[in-house]
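To: structure subgroup
Subject: Chain for Friday's discussion

All,

I'm putting the inputs and outputs inline so they're searchable in the archive.
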Amino acid sequence: MVLLKWKSCIAAITFTATSLAVSKSALAVSLYSVTDLGALTGEAYSYATDINDSGEVAINTLSRSFFYSNGSLKTISSLPGDNQLAVTGINNLGQVVGNSANINNFTGNNPFLYSNGLTQRLPIQNAIPYAINDRTEVVGGASGLGPFLYSNGVATSVGTPSAVAYGLNNLGQAVGILNSNTAFLYENGQTTNLGTLPGDRYSVANDVNDSGQVVGSSGLTSVNDSRAFVYSSSTGLQNLGRLRPTDLFSIGSGINNLGQVVGLSGTTNDFFAADGNGLRAFLYSDNTLYDLNNLLAPGYNPGFILTAASAINNNGQIVGRGAVNGELRAFLLTPISSVSVAEPTSGFPILSFGASVIFFAAFKRKPHSKSAAIEQRS
């Protein structure tokens, strides 16, 4: 059976100068170098799901998963008896979570923790873990249990069945989506429905930082018509808008402790397209949306069209995926300098949300094929 059909991707905010009126004031924003992580894997299809503060990255391809550190890759092995895996989250200890399965004899999703070169099974049945914090606590979704928080060897439900948790901070706050198709925040044993932006009926929360700021997306029906949001207890849900006036949706996927958000905005729901058409990765910083493609330093772009950003660390490094010569490749952006950028007087809010992607058979295969398995956050 297929477990957990849920969101996955990206989110945050970008800015297109041509679409907005600008004032004479300016903001300092980083320019970035690009590391082609996909080229290191040697495969034509790859994407990065998460990054820690040391610049270590979790990467998936159609056939393998990797741990990237200091310019080199280590292959992550599936659990014994399984032949497919995918990784979803990484913490500052270099521990990675993901799940594996046997796609020839599928009996369920087997969650694992990768640490110090070893892949170890987590004692949760038929589950997909999505995030891990620095206390080695894990959140995700499990059959029967729903959204779970795994801590000290015990998995506790933090919501209702058919729901899932996607994000977790170092204080144990968790976020995700309820079976009412609305975003939630879990803290101190209490699950709070965050609701939607005005007029919407759908929302999902994808990530939460250590200040309790939540990033996600809100739409009338789904991610396909959504707008990225940032939530805090003092402001509620704030609409971040979309990158371009013609965009149909935006997705906020990651947030760091500085309140910077990353994600994607676009016109096509083929979120893992390799041609780069219709999708752009964005950064939301200092109340401004930026197209990350416009922030690449001269001479530092190896032919990328950055289509989706999935995570940002506290040093401003960003990971995601992009199109290069018809291939989908994982990337790492690293700040190298600052530049003054005109500040818009107004902007289109950017929509954020995690796009659903079939896990074992969504990301380990060509997108949109109907193989059995699980759907994963990407």
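Points worth raising on Friday:
The helical segments are 37-41, 359-363.
Residues 1-26, 343-378 have pLDDT under 50 and may be disordered.

D.
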